[in-house]
Design a protein that fits this description.
- 76% of the residues lie in helices and 1% in strands.
- It contains 15 helices and 2 strands.
- β1 (163-164) and β2 (167-168) form a beta hairpin.
- α2 (16-33) packs parallel to α13 (270-290), α3 (39-64) runs parallel beside α8 and α8 packs antiparallel against α13.
């Protein structure tokens, strides 16, 4: 009994463990039901989950800023970036630096626009990023007309589809990204500022934290990662098509929340986002093995997202109740990080 209590307390601080357990259980079930699952098939799932992880990490930064902030423009950013890569790189390694630079500039521009709408004009993030997505959809249509054919840079193709010792290069890139993000969140000033702003903006402002800069940075990071993901995703599939980024919209949100990041803000888990991405890909793989039609698969994924968000809603209510109780005691809330971070 003491072991269960200890594990429960540990799991409360390490919420990523639930998505990891989900991956393990679903993997065991699929291994028993089918004979097609092996380490090689697991590496294939890791490869697919890597693209979702990259987008999910960016989405995680936005969600951590709190107040229900979500970046709904990531799908359009992914699609437009894939088209821009095809136009700029033209299938030649010599143009790869130009294509990567174009993808980064695209992400910076879109992230800056989202920041201006959310921070500068005080438009709710969901509405602002949704509007940005519609604008980008038009730009994607124009880019589609400018493409004469589909040609992918060999080096970029290797990064997106190649393997080293049986391990997908893209999976290694995602894992390194997760490790770097975890370091940033835990050991850097920016990570502390991000948590403080997400927990309580009033307390963070009183601690001399520039909230707007932190929030704007989160949206820029999200757009840049989504743009780079579109660059690699286009190389992986060998081209670009309209709505290619659409599956990553709801899945990125689900991966973030299912991985242990509080949708109320203030607490993030990069490792959990990785495990949740793998779990979501496993769910899709299971539905394909069962033979569910695409429409039914969309329904199941929608139910999973609703279930995840419902659980997140309970986290929101419990945290809000805790903050209210603290406020009744005459304090600004249970956000010690805001006063502890370095003043800017």
């Amino acid at each position: 009994m003491n072991g269960l209590v200890a594990f429960s307390l540990w799991a409360q601080k390490n919420r990523w463990v639930w998505s990891a357990i989900g991956v393990l259980l679903l993997w065991l079930v699929l291994s028993v039901v089918t004979n097609r699952f092996s380490l090689s098939s697991l590496s294939g799932i890791m490869l697919s989950a890597s693209f979702l992880t990259v987008v999910g990490i960016g989405q995680m930064f936005v969600v951590t800023t709190g107040r229900g902030n979500i970046d709904l423009s990531v799908a359009s950013v992914i699609t437009l970036s894939a088209f821009v890569a095809l136009v700029t790189i033209k299938g030649q390694d010599a143009n790869l630096a130009i294509g990567v630079g174009a993808a980064i500039l695209l992400g910076l521009a879109i992230g800056g626009l989202n920041s201006l709408l959310v921070v500068g004009l005080n438009i709710p993030a969901i509405i602002a990023t949704l509007a940005t997505g519609y604008v980008l959809a038009t730009a994607t249509l124009l880019s589609n007309r400018a493409i004469a054919g589909f040609a992918v840079s060999p080096l970029l193709k290797t990064l997106a589809t190649g393997r080293i010792a049986g391990v997908p290069i893209m999976a290694a890139i995602a894992i390194v990204g997760v490790a770097a993000t975890s370091f940033v969140l835990r050991y850097t000033v920016f990570g502390q500022l991000l948590s403080a702003v997400g927990q309580n903006r009033t307390a963070a402002r009183l601690a001399a934290i520039r909230n707007n800069r932190v929030i704007a940075s989160a949206f820029i990071i999200s757009s840049v990662l989504a743009s780079l993901n579109g660059l690699l995703l286009g190389a992986y599939i060998g081209g670009a098509f309209l709505e290619m980024g659409q599956p990553y919209l709801l899945q990125s949100i689900a991966a973030v929340v299912l991985g242990g990041t509080l949708i109320f803000g203030g607490s993030a888990s990069a490792v959990g986002t990785l495990f949740a991405s793998i779990l979501l890909i496993l769910i899709v793989t299971t539905m394909q093995i069962v033979g569910l039609p695409p429409g039914a698969q969309d329904i199941v994924q929608g139910i999973v997202v609703i279930f995840v968000l419902a659980l997140a809603g309970r986290q929101v209510l419990s945290r809000r109740a805790a903050v209210d109780r603290t406020d009744d005691d005459g304090t600004l809330g249970s956000e010690p990080n805001a006063a502890a971070v370095r003043r800017e």
